[in-house]
């Protein structure tokens, strides 16, 4: 650890100074740092912590004219939670949120790992760079753009896939408006968007593998495939597990923006997640208290999940904080 | 060197898959660009299969500029991207730098304050009410201030600052430099890779921002690009229009998509090496 810095600035310290005086001096010596922190702290208090205080409207009959504090308490205090629990949305939303997350996890985890391994095996630098550049690209596109691209390919009356289906004698498939296909479109477009980007972290992990292992493998006459199996994969195992654990913490974030942009009334039953429902109920139907209760429910479960996943991750030697 | 048949097969497989990945990533975009540039009669003639435009027309783009809300929204988006990213970077640096000084009394309190927001948030509705209470509804600031600092980026930057050699700061202090000056003249220039990375993340976020706008903006004159593009995409598609010089909806829609994605696609390859480096240096470990 580097030496304590600002503390060691040459402030003459009177021998008899009290502890309190010392602390005060230490704070004063860092005044510029606190000044730097000030705007950020104000930001956090206003836009992050004030909304946390605002969750109390989940326990109140929120009245817009009365404001948060003066609105009457809900009776009983868990009224809106109960309302949500008893509504048909409860199971539907939880199931959708959970399923979409799990599908994305199941089908989205392996392709980036494979891509990273193959990129690592590629022996032509320019080709490797080209593939990397192209595969990162979709990550930078907004969901609105991807929606536009999907329309071009999958829309029922003008999408090129459907045109092709008609030409080859089949009937059209309503990819974007049918409950059967919608989740596949969600998961597929998510994979397309993040395939290359997801590979970055695994590439870094592969780069950290001791090259002498490969040399030893070569001397022993191992094929490339064997080396991938016995050296590369075990070498990045901890990163794979770590990322898996960390993603479990975000099980309830199934991707608001993607779903909001892509979904439509035809597919609410399979596409609506907690976040999109909160958005519609709260901001489109003005049902603030109920929507806040559901939001709080989601944040609460989310907190537990993130905490657990991070605790698990710490056991593996790494964590996000 | 072992170079067996199996190795060769594996290598062939590798190149084939990589080529496929590259193609799958780029073809949809190429197709969109192509449709937006090709005269619609031509598109119809080839049954929609126009991956490389054989005839060019900027008709759709011209029409878009003349009749849609695109030009105005472009100004809005450029404004919030430039202004927003500048504010993001300044605020994030001002939070991350003090937190990277291990001797700062009370550092843990601030750190917990930052990290806790990664764990828990008030949710959509209470956040909306706060934004409303601070008077930002229907103002461009609503697209900038509520997301002014990302805790993830603070941690990324903080861990980068922590790696800078302490002796450097020490000697600057001995020379009598104030902390603000040290930050500006030493820490920031030395942290260029992470600054570019974080700056790019923020800029892409602003350019693509959609959520904030649909939440906080109802005034159509303030709609950013993504919202306007989505509205254009929601117009019902009219695939079979035959009037020669009329620009069909599909072509305009694709032109709008190109409009909203081109700047990022054009800029990011040049920044790529920075952000991969910056990502890796700061990733995960806090």
From TrEMBL, chain B:
Mode of membrane association:
Multi-pass membrane protein
Entry's InterPro entries?
Answer: MetI-like, MetI-like_sf
Q: Which domain of life is it from?
A: Bacteria
Localisation per UniProt entry:
Cell membrane
Respond yes or no to whether keyword Lipid biosynthesis is given for this record.
no
Its chief place of residence is: membrane
Looking at the UniProt entry, the stretches that span the membrane are 12-33, 74-97, 109-129, 141-161, 182-204, 250-271
Keyword annotations of the record: Cell membrane, Membrane, Transmembrane, Transmembrane helix, Transport
Which CDD domains does the entry link to?
A: TM_PBP2 (cd06261)
GO BP terms: namely: transmembrane transport
Q: Where is the ABC transmembrane type-1 domain?
A: 74-271
Q: Name one GO cellular component term.
A: plasma membrane
Tell me which family the UniProt entry assigns to this protein. Belongs to the binding-protein-dependent transport system permease family.
User: PANTHER family of this UniProt entry?
Assistant: ABC TRANSPORTER PERMEASE PROTEIN MG189-RELATED-RELATED (PTHR43744), POLYGALACTURONAN_RHAMNOGALACTURONAN TRANSPORT SYSTEM PERMEASE PROTEIN YTCP (PTHR43744:SF9)
What name appears for this protein in its UniProt entry? Answer: Carbohydrate ABC transporter permease
Look up and give the organism this protein is from.
Answer: Paenibacillus aurantius
